[in-house]
Design brief:
Layout (H helix, E strand, L loop, with lengths): L1 E6 L13 E6 L13 E5 L3 E6 L9 E5 L5 E7 L4 E7 L5 H11 L10 E8 L15 H4 L5 H16 L7 E6 L10 E5 L4 E3 L20 H17 L14 E2 L2 E3 L2
Parallel strand pairs: 3-5, 4-12, 8-9
Antiparallel strand pairs: 1-2, 3-13, 4-7, 5-10, 6-7, 6-8, 10-11
């Protein structure tokens, strides 16, 4: 597919064994360091969304960075008639009803818009999806009410087809990518307003500055998203509350300029 050379230091720490160069297969063409124009983008963390409109003056494209996507899903919808897209980072607890409501409003979807609507659903396959308890007892599969990643993808697709009365199902592309040892370059995407997707490695491109612990906890932008997502996950893991799978509304991610 899309082969790019990377140093081993870009892999998770537990896998690093040598300073070697590997050829990595990625789900999309790789994006090099963004230009100054593209560095102004919305970073879409889990349970967030953003709106991307084509630039009428054609000065430059509008971009969003969405990640990490394992086992979360990228969901992008576009109305070609008004040249506008909405991009979502769907976690297990993110509400599809909320997604549809936002998309209908932002994309001006009515009975005549269906033929102009298209979309893309994407995630990376997570090796430990069925086995690794992330909260001490629940696996990712448990958190998706027993659905495999492929079954969850089909569930999302069918929900969107039904909600938007999509007759040409091929206009809604879907993919769960079998990534290379969880390589960081496959876990996030750069997307423009036309829903053109590129693979991007956040630390290699220093989107949030140089990373020190294979993470960006010290960056204000990511820290803000992370804390909010953790608040939502606290609700999800509270056994005293009703199950919140597919129930929490999305929040809009603001635009940021990444130095």
């Amino acid at each position: 597919m899309n082969a790019v050379l990377f140093s081993d230091f870009l892999r998770p720490v537990s896998i690093v064994a040598r300073k070697a160069i590997d050829r990595v297969t990625l789900p999309f063409p790789y994006s090099e360091v963004p230009s100054p124009t593209t560095r102004q983008a919305a970073f879409v963390y889990e349970n967030f969304y953003t709106v991307l409109e084509d630039d009428a003056k054609k000065i430059g494209k509008k971009y969003a960075i969405v990640g990490t996507l394992r086992p979360c899903f990228f969901v992008g919808l576009r109305n070609d008639r008004i040249r506008k897209s909405v991009v979502f980072h769907k976690a297990a607890y993110s509400s599809l009803d909320s997604l549809v409501e936002i998309a209908k409003k932002e994309l001006a979807i009515d009975g005549k818009a269906e033929k102009f609507l298209r979309g893309y659903i994407f995630s990376n396959r997570y090796t430990f999806y069925n086995y690794f308890p992330i909260d001490g007892k629940n696996t990712w599969r448990d958190l998706h009410q027993g659905k495999s990643q492929k079954e969850e993808m089909v569930f999302i697709k069918n929900f969107l087809i039904s909600s938007f009365n999509i007759s040409k199902v091929e206009r809604l592309e879907c993919r769960v990518f079998k990534n290379y040892l969880g390589h960081l370059a496959s876990l996030s995407v750069l997307v423009d307003s036309t829903l053109e997707l590129s693979s991007i490695c956040l630390d290699r491109e220093e989107i949030f500055g140089k990373c020190t612990r294979l993470g960006f906890e010290e960056d204000d932008v990511l820290e803000e998203r992370y804390k909010r997502a953790q608040e939502l996950r606290q609700i999800y893991f509270d056994d005293k509350l009703a199950p919140t799978y597919n129930s929490l509304p999305f929040e809009r991610a603001p635009l940021h300029y990444f130095e």
